[in-house]
Amino acid sequence: MPGTTTTGNRRRNEERTAMVQLEIENQRPRRWNPLFKWRKYLKIFGSVFLIILACGAVAYASTAAIWYFFEEHLVTPDNSTTSRPKASSRTVTRATRRPTTTVSRHSLTSIEPIEESSPYHPIQERPGPFRIVGFYDSWSKYEIRGRQLQKLTHVIFSALDMNSAGTLSFHDYGIRKKFIDLVEMSKRVNPSLKIMFSIAEYAYASNFEAVVADPEKKKTLCNSIASLIQTHRIDGVDLFWKWPTKVENRDLFVLLLRDIRQKLNSISDSDHQYILSVVLPNFDWPDFKLSLDLNGIMEQVDFINVRTINYYGFWNSQWGAYTGPPSPLYSGLGAYGDSNVNWTITHYMNETGAPGKLNMGVPFFGAHWENVEGPIGVKEEMWFTAKAKTGEETFEGEYIPWREMEGWNLSAAKWHQESRCPFIWLPDERKFLGFENQRSLKEKMKYALEKSLGGITIWSVEMDDDSDTLLNSVQV
C-alpha cells in the first residue's frame, strides 16, 4: 500500500539523518575550557608543594636532633660524655700527691697505660724545628764527639759553679778546657748548633736561695751570665736548681728569671737572640706545685727541659724500694702510679697549654740493682723489690751509661709493654737492669711528636756508644 511505504521511507530517512548528525558531532573538535585546565595545574602544583614541605620538615627535625645530641654529648679526650671545657681552664685531672697509705706487696700489679685526660687548650705551634737538646756532663770521663754534635740542635755544657755572691766560674782548669774545646768543635762541625751552659745547683749545696733573695747578688749573676756568653760567643744559659722547695722561693725564682731575661735582651741584636731555659722536675711530689710557679716560669724562658728520668732509683721510702726503668713512658707501681713520663707531660700540658715549649727528658743510661728479691706479683715482670744491705739503708746499685752495658746480654732483654721499656732479670744472680734501647726511644719520639712537644732533652750525650746507637734513634 502506497501510504504505508511512504511512512516507512520517512522513518528510515529520519534515522539515517540522526546517525549522520551523531557522527558529525563525534568528529567535531571539543571546545577548549581554560578554567578546567588551570584547576588541573593548580592541583598538581599543590600536591608537589605539600610533598616538598613535608620532606623539609622531616629533614629539619632530623638535623636538629643530631646536632642536639652531639652538642650535649661531645666526647672529650678522656672518652667521657661531658660538655666541652672552656679554653681558659687549667684544671689538673689527676692529683699530684702520692698516696700515703701503705700498699700490700701482694696486692700490687702493673698498671695498664692509660691516656691522661686533659682540658681543652688551643694547640700552640712549635716555635721552630723539633729540638734535640743534649746535655754534656763535664765531670764524665767520656768526651763528646763531633759526629754527635752534628745530630743535635742544642748542646748544654753542664755545669758551671755559682758562689753565694752570684759569680760564675769553672770548677777547675780541666772543666774550663772541656768547655772551650766544646765551643770550638761545635762551631767547626755544626755552625747552626746552639751552644749553652748550665748553672747546676743541688739542694744539698745550693747557692740559689742566697742569690734570689738579694737584688745585688741577682745583678752580679746576670752580669756574669752576659759576660760569659759574650766572651765565648755562645747562645744561652740553662738554670738547673734542684729543687726550690720553699714557698717563699716561688716568686723569687720567677723574678730571677725575669732579670736574666731582661739582661739577655739588652745584649741581643737582630743577629743574636739569646736563649734562656730551665730544668724542672717531674712534679710527682706535691711540694713542687707549692714552690714552683710553672706559668710564671714559662713566660720568661724559651723552653723547659722536663726531667722525666730517674723515677726509680736506689733509695728507700715508705713505699719500699722498687726496681724499674729510669724513664717509663706509661705505667707505674702502686704508690708510684704517677711515676711515668705520660703523667708528668700531661700535667705540664694541663697547666701551661704550651707543649711547644716542653722538652721531654730521655736517659742514655740504665738502672742496675743488686740483691734483688722476687717480683711483687706472680704475673709481674718489671717490678721487683730490692733489699738493703744488712744494717744499712743503702742499696746495692748504680746508674750505668749505655756504653758500659757490654757485660749484659742486651739481646736477651725482655720488653715490658706497659712501661714501653726493656729490662733484664737474672734470678740466679739476683740482678736487675732497667734501661733504654732503640725501641723504647723510638716509642718516646713517637709520643713527643704526637703530643706536639717542642723536643727532647738527653741526659747525657757522651753516655752513648761509639756508633751513636741511641742518638740515631731520636732523630726526627
UniProtKB/TrEMBL annotation:
Keywords per UniProt: Membrane, Transmembrane, Transmembrane helix
Pfam family, one: Glyco_hydro_18
Bias type Polar residues, positions: 77-86
InterPro entries reported for this sequence: Chitinase_II/V-like_cat, Chitinase_insertion_sf, GH, Glyco_hydro18_cat
Residue ranges of every copy of the GH18 domain listed in the record: 130-476
Keyword Plastid: no
Spans traversing the lipid bilayer: 44-70
Single annotated GO MF: chitin binding
SMART domains: Glyco_18
Region Disordered, annotated ranges: 77-107
Biased composition (Low complexity): 88-105
One of the protein's GO biological processes: carbohydrate metabolic process
PROSITE patterns the record matches: GH18_2
Domain of life (superkingdom): Eukaryota
Keyword Repeat: no
This protein's name: Glyco_18 domain-containing protein
Biological source species: Caenorhabditis tropicalis
